């Protein structure tokens, strides 16, 4: 697999050096977390980190934090018997910050992976995150997975999607093909821009993110097929922070019981996912 890292400007929103540091820090800090328990959190408030540009889960529009997770946070503020202190920032460093106790929880669509489970515990999944490919609508050379052979793919650097590209490689090999050049981006909007301009042939992301993009730009992009096995995103806390994990899972269960969870899923994802697992043990 040939990989090319691509930086579009001298100060990208998701700094490459920060990303590298975060990726190194997360697995290495397992067991060294100084995560706060509920007693401490009740005294000083719950510090949650959310992403700034990951539609439709969390993003900023007209200066306001919107998306599925941000509406869940609004409800969490009413549910929790303590203050919720939200910090909105780029993806880089969020999970590492949770693992070291800088933030109590990552309320974002963090895909559950075996590597991340070394330093983090995850709540019940909040959606489906199966990986799909996205193509230009006018590109007639791609009609199915086998047509991706040898073509250039765009994907976010350091993401779970990048780590699982070998699954697509295996699919292609079964068809007599192979995975082409991989171009890594600091953020998905950059990858989508390059796809529209023909600089890459397709982009791999989760099905919900891609469905949202296609709905916004149906004349430009077209959703392809699944290129991974099952995958789910969830919120994250530091490894071993059982009290906080139980509290957040209780809140999610309450949202499901009231119907609010499905309501927000339909609003932001276009569909509800009633059969999500309560707990997910990832294969990768």
TrEMBL record:
What are the boundaries of the signal sequence? 1-30
The answer to whether the entry has keyword Glycosyltransferase is no
Gene3D superfamilies, per the entry = Periplasmic binding protein-like II (3.40.190.10)
Name the keywords, alphabetized. Answer: Signal
Solute-binding protein family 3/N-terminal domain: residues covered = 45-272
The identity of this protein, by name, is Amino acid ABC transporter substrate-binding protein, PAAT family
